[in-house]
Amino acid sequence: xxxxxxxxxxxxxxxxxxxxxxxxxxxxxxxxxxxxxxxxxxxxxxxxxxxxxxxxxxxxxxxxxxxxxxxxxxxxxxxxxxxxxxxxxxxxxxxxxxxxxxxxxxxxxxxxxxxxxxxxxxxxxxxxxxxxxxxxxxxxxxxxxxxxxxxxxxxxxxxxxxxxxxxxxxxxxxxxxxxxxxxxxxxxxxxxxxxxxxxxxxxxxxxxxxxxxxxxxxxxxxxxxxxxxxxxxxxxxxxxxxxxxxxxxxxxxxxxxxxxxxxxxxxxxxxxxxxxxxxxxxxxxxxxxxxxxxxxxxxxxxxxxxxxxxxxxxxxxxxxxxxxxxxxxxxxxxxxxxxxxxxxxxxxxxxxxxxxxxxxxxxxxxxxxxxx
Length: 372
Known about the structure:
Distance between the termini: 33 Å
Radius of gyration: 60 Å
Mean pLDDT: 78
Order of helices and strands: HHHHHHHHHH
Strand content: under 5%
Largest sheet: none
Helix content: over 70%
Shape: rod-shaped
């Protein structure tokens, strides 16, 4: 059998729940009751909210509406599955987050030149070249010339000696030797005249080799510059893609979070509305109870005075005089003004204030409350 008393502790025990102060304080926070101190008003409000929740749950299980309406409003409890919205990233946002992580992990490393080794070796060889020097005996071209001239000189020497001997009757003599030596020296003189030309040719080759090395260095430098520019373009493209996904992820994340905040705000507004509605109903109930008690006290007081005046008379003659069902003009005005107010709490306060100022009687106040 459901608990019908007024104690929050007994109610929680009847439901098999914790009833300690700390447990009640936590429960009060979930129900939207701030600053719980265990006062009678807070306990009464908590008890009513729990009963309304239980009533809403029973209606939902029976096929009724689970939404809150006046007189049966169910306040969504904070932290429960059917209450406060929870933020959760969408599948698209999770996918973008994974894409970002993959792109960040696959970033371009430091630049490594594919030509640096060749450039270093060529530069080292160029700087290590010996200064130019020319040794004709180490020049194969000179050796070819020398061999040819020596051969031709010796032949010329023999021919000149033979010709000179023929002129003198076929016998060798000093004239013939001199003629042959002169022919041989003529060829050696021509060989010596070729050396400057061979020197210039060797120097030209030396310079050409240096210029060729510098040309190859320039070509490798150009190739390296092209490779570095390609690397920079790839880095720029990678960062452009990364920034694109960062912006896309950030925009989607912001939209989803703003929607979550909007849903949370709507939930809180609905929760506050239903809570205020129940608070108003509670205030109305409390006021009616206080008003009934004050009426009962006033009736008891009037009954005591009447008994003293009519002591000795029959109990039948002490029946109450019939109360008029019609409202006075002032009471009708109070009713009209109260109906124009926005909520039950203000209506009750207005009627109570009119009663305290003597504008209406207690009986009229009770009838006005019943019509609100």
